Amino acid sequence: MSKKGGKDIVFRRWGLRSNSKTLVNVIRIFKPNTQNEKQKTMAALDYHAEERRKAEFDVEEMKIVWAGSRQAYEISDRVARLVASDPVFRKDNRTMLSRKELFNDTLKKAAHAWKRIIELRLSEEEASELRFFMDQPAFTDLHWGMFIPAIKGSGTEEQKAKWLPMAYKMQIIGCYAQTELGHGSNVQGLETTATFDPHTDEFVLHSPTLTSSKWWPGGLGKVSTHAVVYARLITDGQDHGVHGFIVQLRSLDDHLPLPGITVGDIGMKFGSGAYNSMDNGVLRFDHVRIPRDQMLMGVSQVTREGKCIESDVPRQLVYGTMVYVRQAIVADASTALSRAVCIATRYSAVRRQFGSQNGGPETQVIDYKTQQNRLFPLLASAYAFRFVGEWLQWLYTDVTQRLQANDFSTLPEVHACTAGLKSITTSATADAIEECRKLCGGHGYLSSSGLPELFAVYVPACTYEGDNVVLLLQVGRFLMKTVSQLGSGKKPVGTIAYMGRAERLLQCRCEVERAEDWLKPHVVVEAFEARAASMAVACAKNLNKFPNQEDGFAELSPDLAEAAVAHCQLIVVSKFIEKLQQDIPGKGVKRQLEILCKVYALSLLHKHLGDFIASGYITPEQGALANEQLRLLYSQVRPNAITLVDAFNYTDHFLGSVLGRYDGNVYPKLYEEAWKDPLNETVVPDGYQEYIRPILKQHFRVARL
């Protein structure tokens, strides 16, 4: 092969034209003379520049839409850059640290974050953003995300006044101790007891069995000084069910566990780095006494005489905290999914394979329809989850106001809605991160791609705050109750309002005649409504065949879960379409969101085509037309793909991926990252003399049996 031929192969693989200026740059990439020259060369290259020039919309305005408001965007952007520029928050070596090193690194970052929050006098929103962009699971997540909200949601005014100031100043550090070794989803099955002693005016907390050990609470293992502990309230021999108690676990002087308390870490978890930065813990009580006023008494109270009474505050107020936590989980889903999609999209534009014509560059992987068919629905899902998360924030405000006015009418619907959305968004995101890893080919399996650790960090979301299948079954029960009440005069409201039109939805037929008819929002919404109503009504009919309803629920649980998914996917599609009815400024911004909305809806229709056809609303031919329209929409997404992920506004530090670099300069950075691995600290491996050399030289002693 001639020198020129070899050079041209290099250019074709990189998608570059052969000229002297490019040649100099390529040579410098492969043979940098100095470290400084290498870094300067890498900084000068931008392989996504041409992609960004293709954009048909104002990316700066899209960033504001993604953030939720201009103020939110400005705060997020400022704090993200603050974290990225601080060497203490370095994380590129995280997967190479031992467990102890990783945990110590987490403590250092959490302490530094708190120091910066105080020094810079950050607002509550800015402080929350700083912890978010630190991007390392830590005890502070549970302190701010669970411990404080639990006290705010279930404590009396006096308890809030006592405990919250200390918690806000981090003079105490708290966690949320509910899950036990033997019980997770079944909260009513918890075994830890809190028995009232009227002689001393105290509760006695005890772990009567091995399975009653608290197991999994983040921050519990090594850091938390206090916990909101959930235990069975017992007074005068009577069990009053599970209630919350504020319990001090460790001394504020030397951090040692208090008498009667056994506490520690539960051990390594899935993945390298990932959630191993968190001290998930085990906790046991041996007749530990706490004052009576450390029971959270916002809803239920125990008097000095030991009588358990309901407070004046409605029990339903605890739903406010539940909605708050679940909307935060849905928001996290959009973030995790968008990170994975950003990495996969940028790398798909850099990577070239096959298709070289007459010595020209190979084809960008993102131009293959199979890649688009897998990637673009995930991009659309990221935006869809973002907007349904925004709607859940509104719902939280609405529910809070209603609860304060003693209006509990929407609670069943809100409970089902938030449970279902938590389930489908986290499941879809976990699957999507893994799909993005596969979309990146072999390099996606590298730790430096950022995707393996992102997956390992995220998948627990499918289990915590309610197992996803259990949550779907709760939604299924709600749907069955709704169907049973049709015709009784009780009108379904909110996200379940369409069930009031179930009879018509089961009889009407889709009006689609051409592929472009699927671009009409009302056609899409009605198709999803008909599918959801049909599946719910079918389950209800089958349920009525069982003499015992509970036997029916057990037997039909897979069908109920599928009906719940259909209902929740309808909610996401509907809220995306409602978002587009708002005034959205910026050149081409609304147009791109309309395209993504259609991609999201039609990709779901294609994936679950059997459900839609079975509903009787659409025919197989109409389903084929939907898929035809979907392919056309992919072509409209393609020129905007890079800028649509740029709109997430993630720094390279936060993204944590060589493949997802903003400048697309992937290959030199991959090569550089490889040499940072501890195995490459020596040319000859440490075990050479002891293990490899004897094999090569066959220096073995032969023994007779």
TrEMBL record:
<dbReference type="GO" id="GO:0016301">
    <property type="term" value="F:kinase activity"/>
</dbReference>
<keyword id="KW-0276">Fatty acid metabolism</keyword>
<dbReference type="Pfam" id="PF22924">
    <property type="entry name" value="ACOX_C_alpha1"/>
</dbReference>
<dbReference type="GO" id="GO:0005777">
    <property type="term" value="C:peroxisome"/>
</dbReference>
<dbReference type="GO" id="GO:0005504">
    <property type="term" value="F:fatty acid binding"/>
</dbReference>
<dbReference type="GO" id="GO:0055088">
    <property type="term" value="P:lipid homeostasis"/>
</dbReference>
<dbReference type="InterPro" id="IPR046373">
    <property type="entry name" value="Acyl-CoA_Oxase/DH_mid-dom_sf"/>
</dbReference>
<dbReference type="Pfam" id="PF02770">
    <property type="entry name" value="Acyl-CoA_dh_M"/>
</dbReference>
<dbReference type="InterPro" id="IPR029320">
    <property type="entry name" value="Acyl-CoA_ox_N"/>
</dbReference>
<feature type="binding site">
    <location>
        <position position="179"/>
    </location>
    <ligand>
        <name>FAD</name>
    </ligand>
</feature>
<dbReference type="GO" id="GO:0001676">
    <property type="term" value="P:long-chain fatty acid metabolic process"/>
</dbReference>
<keyword id="KW-0808">Transferase</keyword>
<keyword id="KW-0560">Oxidoreductase</keyword>
<dbReference type="Pfam" id="PF14749">
    <property type="entry name" value="Acyl-CoA_ox_N"/>
</dbReference>
<feature type="domain" description="Acyl-CoA oxidase/dehydrogenase middle">
    <location>
        <begin position="175"/>
        <end position="276"/>
    </location>
</feature>
<dbReference type="GO" id="GO:0033540">
    <property type="term" value="P:fatty acid beta-oxidation using acyl-CoA oxidase"/>
</dbReference>
<keyword id="KW-0418">Kinase</keyword>
<dbReference type="InterPro" id="IPR006091">
    <property type="entry name" value="Acyl-CoA_Oxase/DH_mid-dom"/>
</dbReference>
<feature type="active site" description="Proton acceptor">
    <location>
        <position position="465"/>
    </location>
</feature>
<feature type="domain" description="Acyl-coenzyme A oxidase N-terminal">
    <location>
        <begin position="58"/>
        <end position="173"/>
    </location>
</feature>
<feature type="domain" description="Acyl-CoA oxidase C-alpha1">
    <location>
        <begin position="319"/>
        <end position="480"/>
    </location>
</feature>
<dbReference type="GO" id="GO:0003997">
    <property type="term" value="F:acyl-CoA oxidase activity"/>
</dbReference>
<keyword id="KW-0576">Peroxisome</keyword>
<dbReference type="InterPro" id="IPR002655">
    <property type="entry name" value="Acyl-CoA_oxidase_C"/>
</dbReference>
<comment type="similarity">
    <text>Belongs to the acyl-CoA oxidase family.</text>
</comment>
<dbReference type="GO" id="GO:0071949">
    <property type="term" value="F:FAD binding"/>
</dbReference>
<dbReference type="InterPro" id="IPR012258">
    <property type="entry name" value="Acyl-CoA_oxidase"/>
</dbReference>
<dbReference type="InterPro" id="IPR037069">
    <property type="entry name" value="AcylCoA_DH/ox_N_sf"/>
</dbReference>
<dbReference type="InterPro" id="IPR055060">
    <property type="entry name" value="ACOX_C_alpha1"/>
</dbReference>
<keyword id="KW-0443">Lipid metabolism</keyword>
<keyword id="KW-0274">FAD</keyword>
<feature type="domain" description="Acyl-CoA oxidase C-terminal">
    <location>
        <begin position="521"/>
        <end position="697"/>
    </location>
</feature>
<feature type="binding site">
    <location>
        <position position="218"/>
    </location>
    <ligand>
        <name>FAD</name>
    </ligand>
</feature>
<dbReference type="InterPro" id="IPR036250">
    <property type="entry name" value="AcylCo_DH-like_C"/>
</dbReference>
<keyword id="KW-0285">Flavoprotein</keyword>
<dbReference type="InterPro" id="IPR009100">
    <property type="entry name" value="AcylCoA_DH/oxidase_NM_dom_sf"/>
</dbReference>
<keyword id="KW-0675">Receptor</keyword>
<dbReference type="Pfam" id="PF01756">
    <property type="entry name" value="ACOX"/>
</dbReference>
<protein>
    <recommendedName>
        <fullName>Acyl-coenzyme A oxidase</fullName>
    </recommendedName>
</protein>
